[in-house]
Specification:
Layout (H helix, E strand, L loop, with lengths): L1 E10 L4 H17 L3 E17 L2 E13 L1 H13 L3 E9 L8 H8 L24 H4 L16
Antiparallel strand pairs: 1-3, 1-4, 2-3
InterPro entries: Ribosomal_bS6 (IPR000529), Ribosomal_bS6_sf (IPR035980), Ribosomal_S6_plastid/chlpt (IPR020814), Transl_elong_EF1B/ribsomal_bS6 (IPR014717)
GO cellular component, one term: ribosome
Protein name: Small ribosomal subunit protein bS6
Length: 153
């Protein structure tokens, strides 16, 4: 059997319990066709980069799958029919990752206090040490130098 990582996006107006029910439904489809589901991660409700079917947000879910190709095709066929699924993507992998996925690790990093993150509070430190005032640096290279127009009176 082949190894896959499968991510799907569900509509924003369904509940987290309904997302879990969708995961269980597709897990059952895979197991009925001779496959197994390993790790399942619910990444929660996240903003989309662009609107999909009038949705600005979506529930993200990840499944690690060990199943024959026919089982994955059947699951994807059922996802195409389901109105609650906005998008899905299945990728064949050599082996499954150990531990939490990159999305879950990112969430842990964002739990730090805001002052500890780089880029926050730079305005409190005064001028940046690597750059002086604009007058000291001269004109930009490759650009144009702004000069007063001679035709103005």
């Amino acid at each position: 059997m082949a190894l896959y990582e499968h991510v799907f996006l569900a509509r924003q107006d369904i509940s987290a319990q309904q997302v879990d029910a969708l995961v269980e439904q597709y897990k059952g489809v895979l197991e009925a066709n001779g496959g197994k589901v390993g790790r399942v991660e619910n990444w929660g409700l996240k903003s989309l980069t662009y609107r999909i079917n009038k949705n600005r947000k979506a529930h993200y879910a990840l499944m690690d799958i060990d199943a024959p190709a026919a089982a994955v095709h059947e699951m994807e066929r059922q996802m195409r029919i389901n109105e609650d699924i906005l998008r899905y993507m299945t990728i064949a992998v050599e082996k499954h990752e150990e531990g939490p996925s990159a999305m879950m690790q990112k969430r842990d990093r964002d739990d730090r206090p805001r002052g500890d993150r780089p880029g926050f509070g730079d305005r409190d430190r005064g001028p940046r040490p690597d750059r002086g005032p604009r007058e000291d640096r001269g004109p930009r290279e490759g650009g144009f130098e702004r000069r007063p127009r001679e035709d103005r009176a």
